[in-house]
Amino acid sequence: MKLHMQILIALGLGIKRNWHIFFGIIAGILVGIFLHGHNFPFINTLLIFIGQVFIRLIQMVVIPLVVSAIVIGITSVGDNKQLGKFGSKMILYYGIITTVAVAIGALLALIFKPGLGAAHYIAANSASEVQAAVSTAMAQQQGNILNIFLDFIPSNPLNALAHGNMVAIIVFVVIFAIALAKVGDVNRPIVSFFESVFAATMKITDWIMFLAAPGVFALTASAVSSFGIDIFMSISKYFGVLAIGFLLQLFVVYPLFLKFFSKVNVWILYSAVAEAMMVAFGTASSSATLPLTIACCEKRGISHKISSFVLPLGATLNMDGTALLQTVAVIFLAQAYGVALTPFLVIQIALLAIIASSTCAGIPGAGLITIALILNGMGLSPEQLVAGFAFLFTIERVTDMMRTLVNVTSDAVVVAAIADNENEINYDLLNNPQAYEDIA
Ligand code: ASP
């Protein structure tokens, strides 16, 4: 079958099964455009309320889900050597995808030069609340990159759990689960306990998904209505470069990656995880989408052993869409303010984007805060930094929705590749779009 037919059929199937969510996104965009410029405070409040109900409900299951998934995943692998193999493969694959993303971002930004002549537009946008947010972000990121890594180690795991500090939680749970695997049979009560927790959280996720269409509709409508589409016209070049970059990741890089490293058909995979992709777009949060990403992958034949370990880590560490945006955004600002973009500086930006993106949490807006890590070394004046940030904030939500979709898709791509390499995919399920395994 011709490639474009395969793409259309797969996307069609993914959308058909989740047409209500797709409809929610489209209706959300249209209603958002209509609401922009009209004053309907009640409707706006209602949309925000519905969106928040949906997001909070899925966030509610994330921590029990992550903890239980990792414990079951690691203890079921058992053997440390095998775990090390999965872990290093995961880091390698995430690394490849993110490196390609920053390279694409840098190349596109250098070729299309979206920032040239944009300085005057940037200054017009600096609002005082943004300035305050920026100063805090810059102060937090100031100084030592090592401190960021230090924060990954929780001195008090319960504190990390209570504050939803995802990376710290994962670090603790991974170590804890490895220890559990080592102690042998005495681990049974705890592992059974987490098996029950996992099954119940998956069940709750199923229930919450009844709200996916109105939730995604409300989130999209309120995001679009807050700035309308006129803003895109004035910064169309910046937006266009980002959009091309994201499309290249989705339609060129991941297909090639899967072809090269596995025998998974990328279009079938997209159709399997379409629901998670759409919810990622609506919520702009990889962490909030995680329960669904896990559900989509496991229902379509990717083994729990792999997905429960790789996906939670991916949702917090693998942010290639964010890295691409950060690279384009920083080069954009450098061009706007006339900073000379030497090859050395471009490489520095790209490397820092890899670090900054992987230290950012899978929540809305996190990628724009960690961008401060890259901007700090750029030699811009504080005023320029503030104005630049304010500019990036103007279309933050929509770019966040797009990059989160990319982040979540690449998590699924990497987990599928590892599962394929380890013979942990049930291809009868994956290749049959009608089939669904009940995992809860
Ligand atoms: N919202 C993104 C995510 O959850 C992170 C970011 O802000 O770039 O994947």
Task: Give an overview in words.
The chain has 440 residues and is mainly α. It is 79% helix and 0% strand. It has helices spanning 3-17, 19-35, 41-77, 80-112, 119-123, 128-141, 145-150, 157-163, 166-182, 188-208, 212-225, 230-234, 236-261, 266-283, 286-299, 304-317, 320-336, 343-358, 366-375, 382-394, 396-421, 427-430. The longest helix has 37 residues, at 41-77. The protein is globular. The model has no long low-confidence stretch (mean pLDDT 84). The structure holds aspartic acid. Residues 284-286, 319, 322, 360, 362-367, 400, 403-404, 407 line the site of aspartic acid (ASP). Aspartic acid binds next to α19 and α21.
Quickly list its features.
440 residues, mainly alpha, 22 helices, 79% helix, globular, binds aspartic acid
What form results from the Cα inertia axes?
globular
Give the % helix. Answer: over 70%
What structural class do you assign from the helix and strand content? mainly alpha
Range of strand content: under 5%
Radius of gyration, in angstroms, nearest whole number: 21 Å
Poorly predicted tracts of residues: none
Please trace the helix and strand order, writing H or E for each element.
HHHHHHHHHHHHHHHHHHHHHH
Total strands: the figure is 0
Q: Separation of termini?
A: 35 Å
Number of helices: 22
The bound ligands are:
aspartic acid
Biggest β-sheet strands, sense, barrel: none
Return the average pLDDT rounded to an integer.
84
Summary, kept brief:
This protein has helices at 3-17, 19-35, 41-77, 80-112, 119-123, 128-141, 145-150, 157-163, 166-182, 188-208, 212-225, 230-234, 236-261, 266-283, 286-299, 304-317, 320-336, 343-358, 366-375, 382-394, 396-421, 427-430. It is an all-alpha fold and 440 residues long. The longest helix is centred in the first third of the chain and has 37 residues, at 41-77.
